[in-house]
Amino acid sequence: MKYDEYQFLEFTRHDDGILLITINRPDVLNATNARLHWELSRVWRDIDDDPETNVVIITGKGRAFSAGGDLDMIDAMKGNHANISQAMREAGDIVYNIVNCEKIVISAINGVAVGAGLAVAFMADITIASEAMRITDGHLRLGVAAGDHAVILWPLLCGLAKAKYYLITADFIDGKEAERIGLVSLCVPADKLMDKAFEVARKIARGPQQAARLTKRALNNWVKTFGPHFDASLAFEMLGFFSADVDEGVAAVKEKRPPVFPHLKK
After folding, report:
1. What average pLDDT does this structure show over 46-74?
2. Disulfide engineering: 246 pairs with which of 143, 157, 171, 176, CB 3.0-4.6 Å?
3. Domains and CATH numbers, the chain
4. What residue spans of the chain are helical by DSSP H?
């Protein structure tokens, strides 16, 4: 694909081979519909093949990075084997294609980040959070097991105790707390976010590219070691889309109320 064929990702070239990618569905806080989910799984292959790009910055347009999965997409997945299989394959590609992309990826996390958007934000090599960032893995809020990137990555970043707490409770985390526990590389004031992202990108882009890329490749062997854990978590997550819990979870999100999962109604 050419970059102009993407519908919900904007691409802007900057000096030193820096490519800015902006997730562009601001009217729905950049939530991932089926098309955007596919684009986020695919784009890293195109970047890997792009000789003009040394470093990537990815951010969200407006006041959110990406506010999770579009509820229409989730509705279409419930109990539908074909749609669940497609989403599972793409969720795996988001994680593994960022890991395997030789270019250095920087995320500038400018607000809410949930679900597939959070996977993109945190699988980046360098994660720079705004103090206004609010993230949650969010899967348990829907009634499905935590999957996507979190099981492969969070225990490495913040330790198993914190990973278990935040993944099982699905509590929100702000930028300062994420930096404190090691979930992100840096946290800066909201009005300094993009300046900092470009400062870091320029430093890397003007440095030795092969050395940077091989360092990423070596360090990501830590992540790849936990690939079987990720594969299991992704399968467990998708199993939940055949359950009554996800029906209640989606209904609660739509109605903006706490969920009452089936076991509580007995």
Report:
1. 94
2. 143
3. 3-191+206-265 (3.90.226.10)
4. 34-48, 71-77, 81-100, 115-123, 139-142, 150-158, 160-169, 175-181, 193-205, 209-225, 227-239, 244-255
